[in-house]
Design a protein that fits this description.
The complex is a heterotrimer of chains A (331), B (330) and C (286). By secondary structure, chain B is of the alpha/beta class. Chain B contains 14 helices and 12 strands. Chain C is 74% helix and 0% strand. Classes of the chains: A mainly alpha (331), B alpha/beta (330), C mainly alpha (286). Chains in contact: A-B, A-C, B-C.
Chain lengths: 331, 330, 286
C-alpha cells in the first residue's frame, strides 16, 4: 500500500499538488482539490445525462410530425404504405412482440435447465466449462447469427422443421400455411439462441444464492435429487427466474440484424408461424437511410421511440422483479 | 488505453500515404454491377480520384443527396418535382445506361422460358394468383408442366428505383394494380417477402424454391436465373435482353427536353416492356469541387464506358442522346 | 410400480431433461461455430487480408478496408467512451449518493436499454446531418454509446468491492480524496477494470446496426475521420445478402475473422485475467 502511495505522489505532479498549495489553506488545499475534482466529475456526469436527454429530444423532434399526423392511430393501424404516405406501426409491434415471446417460450425452459445442471448436478469444474460455452454464445455477433440463419437455419426450417410442425400441429391455423423458411419461426429460433445466455446467467446467479442449508435439509428429509431441486431451489427462486426471463425478453425485443435477415420484412401482421413479418428494429434497419418523404422518416423515428419504450418497460419490470426478490432474500 | 492510442496512431499515420480525392455517391443498386466496373476501370487511368459508391437503393440515393450527405446520387426512378424543390441546388438527371427489369423465378420442376403477360404478372404480385399451376399461367403456357407449388413473391424492402420501374409498367398494363398499389419506390405489398437491394432479392430467389421476383437483367444473367418472357404491346413474348431494351429506347424521340421519361411498355417489335434509364443525379453546386471529378467521370462513362455496357448486360444509350448529354455536363 | 421406484424414475427423467437442455444449448453454438469455420477457413488468403473489393461479380478481392475500418471505429469509440465510462463508474461507486449520481445511474441504465439501431438513428441525426456526410466519426460515436454504459457499470461494480479500510488507510496518510480514489482504488483494480473494458469493446466490435447509416461503407481503406468507412460487420451484411458466390464466401470468411477476433479477445481476457470475483461481477452486466 505504502508503495502505491509513494509512487503516486512522486510521478504525478499535477497542478493541484504543485508546491504553491500546501496541505493547509490556500487555493490548492486538500479541501479545494477535492472540491475541484468533484465539480469536474460531476460536470462529466451531467454531460452524460445531458447526452441521454439530447438523444430523447432529438428522436422526439424527428418523430413529432408523425405523432401529430397519425396520433394514436399509429399504434392501432397496420397500414404501412409509403406510396400514400400513410403509416401505422401495429404490424411491427405485433411482429416484435410475437417473435420475442416465441423465443422466450423456446429459450426459457432450456436456459433454466442448463442453469440447474450447472449449479445443482454437475461438479463445479464441469459446470464452469458449460458456463463458458454459454458465455461464448453471448459473444457471437448478431450479424454472424444472421448469416448462419439465412444460409443454414432457413433451409432447415423449410425442409425439416415445417413438415414436422405441420403434421403435428397443422390442425391449428396458426401452425399451417405456406412456408419458405424465411419468417417468424426462423427469426424466433435465432432470437431464442441469442437470449439463452442472458437468461441462463441470471438463473445461475439466483440458484447460487439459495442457501446450501436449504438443500441439505431437503436431502436430509430423504428427498431425491430432483425433489430437492424442485422444492429447495426452484420454488424459492421463482421470482428470480421470472426476472431473468423478462430480461431476456428485453434483449430479444431490440435485436436487429439477425432478425432483419431472416424474417422476410413484410409489414403485415403474420397469419401463421411460417409467414414473413417485420419487427420494429428490422423496418428501421431496412428503410431509415432510404425513406423518401419526411413523414416516412418521421414515422420510422416514431417506431424507434416505441421500440425504446417497449424495451424500457421490459427492463423495468425485470429490475422490479429482481429487486423484490433480493429484498425478500435479505429480509 | 495505450494500446488503442497506438492502434489509432498507426492508422492515422497511414493517412499521409494516400492523398486522393474521395468522392462519395450512393443510390440505385440496379446499375451497381456496371458502375463498380466503371469506377474500377476509370481509376486505373485516374489514380488521383476514388469513387466510393454505395448501392443502398434509389430512394436512399435521392434522400441522402437532398440531405447533402453524399456528393452525387443515383436512381432509376427520376426525382419528382416535389423532391427537386427540396434540394438546395438544381439537380441534373444524367442517364448513364439502360437496363431491363427481369422477372426471375426459381421453381423446381419448371423449365426456363415461362411466358406471362402484364395482367397475370400484376395478379401474381398482388397475391391474387398464389399457385404456380394457376389456370391463368397455364393458359399462357399450354405446353409446360406447372408444379402445384406456392408462389413466393420476393420484392424490395428498401426504397427502390427497380420497384418504381416495375410498378410503372404494371400500373400501365393493369388498372387494378394502378388502383390498389400505384407507382412508387416503395409500395405496400400485400404478399411475399422483402429483401434489401437487387442483391438481396436475387439471393432470396436463388435460395428459395417457388420464388419469383424482379431484378436487373445483369443480376439474373450472372446468377443463371430463369427469366420470364413478357408479352409486349405488339403481342410478342420477349425475354429480357439488351437488344429488347435498346428497341425500347429507340422509341424515344426528344433528346433535349426533360430526360425524366418512362419507356415502359413501348410499342414496336422486339421491345422488352420493362426497360428503363438509370440516372446519375448531379447537383449544380459550384462550391463542391468534387463535382468536377464527377463530371469528368461522366464524360468518360458516356464515351469509353458505353462500350462496356453490352458485356455487362446493359444497353448503351442511343448515340443522339449521348451527344445531347455532352453539352449538359460541360 | 411402488412409490419409491416411481420417485426414482422421476428423478432420472428430470435429470435427463436437464442434460438434454444442455445439449440443446450446445448444439446451436457448435453448429454456428463449425459452419462458420468450415465455410470461412477456405477463403483465408493473403488477398483477403491485403486487398480491397473487386467490381461486382468478379472473383477475388478482399476485406482489408473492412478489417481496418472496424479496428479504427472500435478504437475511436473506445477512446471516447472508456475514459468517460471509467470516471463515471468511479463517481458512482465513490460518490454515489447525491442527486447527480442518482440521475447518472438512471441515465446509464436507460442507455444500456437503448436498442442499438436507435443509437444508429441518434448518431445519424446528431453527426451525419450537421456534418453533411456519413463519417467514421458518426460511427465511432455510435459505438461509444454502446461501450459507455457497459464500462460504467462494470467499473462501478468492481470498485464497490474495494474494502472501506483501504480507502480509510489512504485518507489517514493525509492524501486528498481524489488521489485516494484514482491512485489507490482505481489503480489497485486496474486489471479488473480493464477486463470490463475489453469485454465492452469486444461487444462493440460485432455491432452492425449502429453503423449502417453512420459509418456507412467505403470501398477503400480510409483513415479520414469525416469520410465514410467500411466495417467488418456491415461488409459481412452486404456480402451475405448478395447473390454472388464469391461474395458470399467472403462473407463467411469475414464472419470467421470477426468471431476469431471477438472470441479471441474474450477467451484471452478470461484466461489471463481470471480473477474469479471480478469476472462474475463483470459478466453479470451483460
Amino acid at each position: 500500500m505504502e508503495n502505491v502511495v509513494n509512487h503516486s505522489s512522486n510521478t504525478k505532479p499535477t497542478p493541484s499538488s504543485s508546491p504553491s498549495g500546501g496541505p493547509k489553506g490556500g487555493f490548492f488545499s486538500l479541501k479545494n482539490q477535492d472540491k475541484l475534482h468533484l465539480t469536474a466529475i460531476k460536470s462529466l456526469a451531467v454531460f452524460v445525462i445531458g447526452l441521454l436527454i439530447t438523444l430523447l429530444i432529438l428522436l422526439l423532434k424527428q418523430a413529432w410530425p408523425a405523432v401529430t399526423e397519425f396520433g394514436v392511430e399509429f399504434i392501432t393501424s397496420d397500414w404501412w404504405n409509403p406510396v400514400e404516405d400513410q403509416f401505422g406501426g401495429l404490424s411491427f409491434i405485433v411482429g416484435t412482440v410475437l417473435t420475442s415471446i416465441i423465443a422466450i417460450i423456446i429459450a426459457a425452459p432450456v436456459s433454466i435447465g442448463v442453469a440447474l445442471l450447472m449449479t445443482e448436478v454437475l461438479p463445479e469444474r464441469a459446470g464452469k466449462t458449460i458456463g463458458l460455452f454459454v458465455e461464448m454464445i453471448a459473444a457471437i455477433p448478431s450479424i454472424v447469427f444472421g448469416l448462419w440463419g439465412l444460409f443454414y437455419l432457413a433451409p432447415f426450417v423449410r425442409e425439416t422443421l415445417t413438415p414436422i410442425i405441420k403434421s403435428t400441429l397443422g390442425f391449428i391455423p396458426f401452425f399451417n400455411g405456406p412456408s419458405f423458411g424465411i419468417g417468424v419461426l426462423t427469426a424466433s429460433l435465432i432470437l431464442a439462441i441469442m437470449i439463452i445466455p442472458t437468461i441462463t446467467s441470471l438463473c445461475r446467479e439466483v440458484f447460487r444464492s439459495v442457501p446450501t442449508l436449504q438443500r441439505e435439509a431437503a436431502l436430509g428429509l430423504g428427498s431425491t435429487r430432483w425433489e430437492m431441486i424442485r422444492l429447495a431451489v426452484i420454488k424459492p427462486s421463482f421470482s428470480g427466474i421470472m426476472g431473468g426471463i423478462v430480461l431476456g425478453l428485453g434483449r430479444a425485443l431490440g435485436e436487429t440484424m439477425a432478425v432483419a435477415m431472416v424474417i422476410g420484412n413484410q409489414p403485415e401482421i403474420p397469419k401463421s408461424i411460417f409467414s414473413s413479418a417485420a419487427t420494429m428494429a428490422s423496418v428501421i434497419a431496412n428503410e431509415y437511410a432510404e425513406a423518401d418523404s419526411d413523414l416516412h422518416v418521421s414515422a420510422l423515428c416514431l417506431v424507434g421511440i416505441l421500440l425504446f419504450g417497449v424495451t424500457l418497460i421490459a427492463n423495468a419490470i425485470a429490475r422490479l422483479i429482481v429487486w423484490n426478490y433480493n429484498r425478500k432474500q435479505q429480509g | 488505453m495505450k494500446l488503442f492510442s497506438l492502434i489509432l496512431g498507426l492508422l492515422l499515420s497511414l493517412t499521409s500515404t494516400h492523398a486522393a480525392i474521395n468522392v462519395n455517391g450512393a443510390g440505385a443498386s440496379f446499375p451497381y454491377p456496371i458502375y463498380s466496373k466503371w469506377f474500377a476501370e476509370y481509376e486505373k487511368s485516374n489514380k488521383e480520384v476514388r469513387f466510393n459508391y454505395q448501392a443502398i437503393g434509389s430512394g436512399g440515393g435521392i434522400r441522402q443527396l437532398l440531405k447533402q450527405t453524399v456528393d452525387f446520387g443515383a436512381s432509376d426512378a427520376p426525382m419528382k418535382d416535389k423532391d427537386m424543390k427540396k434540394a438546395a441546388w438544381p439537380i441534373h438527371h444524367i442517364p448513364t445506361v439502360l437496363g431491363a427489369v427481369a422477372i426471375s423465378y426459381n421453381v423446381k420442376g419448371l423449365d426456363a422460358g415461362l411466358k406471362l403477360d402484364g395482367t397475370t404478372l400484376a395478379n401474381m404480385f398482388m397475391g391474387k394468383i398464389t399457385k404456380w399451376n394457376d389456370a391463368a399461367i397455364k393458359k399462357l403456357n399450354p405446353n409446360m408442366s406447372l408444379p402445384n407449388k406456392d408462389i413466393l413473391v420476393v420484392r424490395r424492402a428498401d426504397g427502390s428505383g427497380t420497384t418504381a420501374v416495375l410498378s410503372d409498367y404494371l400500373s400501365t398494363v393493369s388498372s387494378d394494380f394502378q388502383k390498389k398499389m400505384g407507382r412508387g419506390k416503395s409500395l405496400r405489398w400485400p404478399t411475399g417477402i422483402g429483401a434489401k437491394g437487387n442483391d438481396g432479392v436475387t439471393n432470396m430467389i436463388k435460395q428459395t424454391d417457388g420464388a419469383v421476383g424482379y431484378i436487373e437483367l445483369a443480376y439474373a444473367v450472372k446468377n443463371n436465373l430463369s427469366t420470364v418472357a413478357l408479352k409486349n404491346k405488339a403481342g410478342e413474348f420477349v425475354a429480357p435482353s439488351t437488344d429488347g431494351v435498346s428497341r425500347s429506347a429507340a422509341t424515344l424521340k426528344d433528346f433535349n427536353g426533360d430526360l425524366r421519361v418512362s419507356i415502359v411498355d413501348a410499342a414496336g417489335s422486339g421491345v422488352y416492356p420493362i426497360s428503363a434509364f438509370t440516372y446519375i443525379l448531379l447537383p449544380v453546386d459550384s462550391k463542391n469541387k468534387k463535382l468536377v471529378e464527377v463530371k469528368k467521370f461522366l464524360r468518360w462513362a458516356l464515351s469509353t464506358g458505353q462500350d462496356m455496357a453490352e458485356e455487362l448486360h446493359y444497353a448503351p444509350l442511343p448515340k443522339k442522346l449521348v451527344k445531347a448529354l455532352e453539352g449538359k455536363i460541360q | 410400480m411402488n412409490y419409491y421406484t416411481w420417485r426414482k424414475a422421476k428423478n432420472y427423467f428430470f435429470h435427463s431433461l436437464l442434460s438434454i437442455s444442455a445439449v440443446l444449448v450446445l448444439i446451436p453454438l457448435f453448429l454456428v461455430v463449425a459452419y462458420v469455420v468450415y465455410k470461412g477457413i477456405s477463403g483465408l488468403s493473403l488477398d483477403f487480408f491485403f486487398n480491397t473489393p473487386k467490381p461486382v461479380g468478379e472473383v477475388g478481392g478482399g476485406m482489408v478496408h473492412a478489417i481496418m475500418g472496424t479496428l479504427y471505429l472500435v478504437a475511436l469509440g473506445s477512446l471516447i467512451a472508456v475514459p468517460i465510462g471509467v470516471v463515471c463508474g468511479t463517481f458512482l461507486s465513490e460518490f454515489g449518493d447525491g442527486k447527480i449520481a442518482k440521475s447518472l445511474r438512471v441515465a446509464i441504465d436507460l442507455l444500456t436499454g437503448v436498442p442499438s439501431i436507435v443509437i444508429g438513428i441518434f448518431a445519424y441525426i446528431l453527426i451525419v446531418i450537421p456534418f453533411k456526410g456519413f463519417s467514421a466519426l458518426a460511427g465511432g460515436i455510435a459505438l461509444s454509446l454502446i461501450i459507455l454504459p457497459i464500462v460504467t457499470r462494470s467499473t462501478e461494480e468492481i470498485l464497490k468491492l474495494v474494502p472501506q479500510h483501504i480507502k480509510e488507510a489512504g485518507l489517514a496518510l493525509g492524501l486528498p480524496r481524489w488521489k485516494v480514489t484514482y491512485f489507490i482504488v482505481v489503480k489497485g483494480n486496474l486489471k479488473a477494470i480493464l477486463t470490463g473494458v475489453i469485454l465492452a469493446i469486444s461487444r462493440a466490435a460485432g455491432e452492425t446496426a449502429p453503423l449502417l447509416f453512420t459509418a456507412f461503407g467505403n470501398r477503400y481503406v480510409s483513415t479520414e475521420l469525416l469520410s465514410p468507412m467500411a466495417s467488418l460487420p456491415v461488409q459481412i451484411y452486404n456480402y451475405s445478402i448478395s447473390p454472388f458466390d464469391d461474395w458470399q464466401a467472403q462473407a463467411w470468411t469475414g464472419a470467421f475473422v470477426l468471431i476469431f477476433l471477438i472470441l479471441g479477445i474474450n477467451l484471452t481476457c478470461r484466461t489471463f485475467l481470471n480473477r474469479k470475483k471480478i469476472l462474475e461481477k463483470v459478466t453479470r452486466q451483460k
